[in-house]
Amino acid sequence: MKKTLAAIALASAMMAFGLPAQAAEPIDPIEPVEVKNPALVELGKMLFFEPRLSRSGFISCNSCHNLATGGVDNLVTSIGDRWAQGPINSPTVLNSFGQIAQFWDGRAKTLAEQAAGPIANPLEMASTHEMAVKVISSIPGYGEYFKKAFGDSKVDIQRITDAMAEFERTLVTPNARFDKWLKGDKDALTAQELKGYNLFKSSGCTICHNGAQVGGQSFQKMGLVRPYQTTNTAEGVKAVSGRDQDRMSFKTPMLRNVELTYPYFHDGAVWTLEEAVAIMGDVQLGRRYMKEELADISAFLKTLTGDQPKIEYPVLPPSGPETPKFNPWAPAAK
């Protein structure tokens, strides 16, 4: 917050001296990530799309974080093993590497930690880490990919999740029109979009939605001014900390590509940007936006959509004779 307020103050000072304010905006352009180990990224991509990491052999990371639809599944809450309904909306995997933590409640500090969670979650992939290692080890074609990425063909859960995390680090979406405006292209935004951005700033939205990801840098109480009405039972950070004061505190979602990542909020209850902005203005800021203001802010938010990752579905190696065969209706592993 201090950084954001300082940035706003600096922007005001620069405008006073006739300097371009873009240089001190609370939102930064997002840039492509330099790939230092392409073999590790390639292995991670294969594992991201690998359904055999799940107990049923049908669910992969891409099932809930579909790279063709903004890194989400566009469901209220995700569908997991044996059609289990998840408890919370799936956040986007795009641009996720730079956040303060992973998951809505921040229970994973790194992308690798996050990747490990769904594999063993009975409502998601419903396997175990031990079984995941056994399965991948039994597929002959994976050996050469692990050797290229790590120097030898050993398979363990840390290597599996490290590879997936390295792939996910590359899933950034640069070249949004707003980024072009930040970099000096004054024609990149329409008058309405610029009006919406200025209202977004003056309302105080950038206190939480700032930086390159336009969010993901803090935990905030949902319903700061007025209670947020929901039937969802997720407790937020309280589930991790155990402290009652953390109930309904969630990681601030990123707003990059937000027009693609509906439905919105941790409960997936809202399907349009205009309604999401109206609710946030009301329960977080105590402000009732007019219809025109909702349209302006929503128009600005749509300028945060960048180049989507162009990822081809990888050719996964065939199972070997020792690869476990699964009964998708058998009891989940304990």
Automatic annotation (TrEMBL):
GO terms for cellular component: periplasmic space. Residues 39-147, 191-305 form the Cytochrome c domain. Coiled coil: none annotated. Residues 1-23 form the signal peptide. Binds 2 heme groups. GO terms for molecular function: cytochrome-c peroxidase activity; electron transfer activity; heme binding; metal ion binding. Binds 2 heme groups per subunit. Heme c 2 binds at residues 205, 208-209, 280. It comes from the Bacteria. Its cofactor is heme. Its main location: periplasm. It is found in: Periplasm. Keywords: Electron transport, Heme, Iron, Metal-binding, Oxidoreductase, Periplasm, Peroxidase, Signal, Transport. Heme c 1 binds at residues 61, 64-65. This is Cytochrome-c peroxidase. The lineage of its organism: Bacteria, Pseudomonadati, Pseudomonadota, Betaproteobacteria, Burkholderiales.
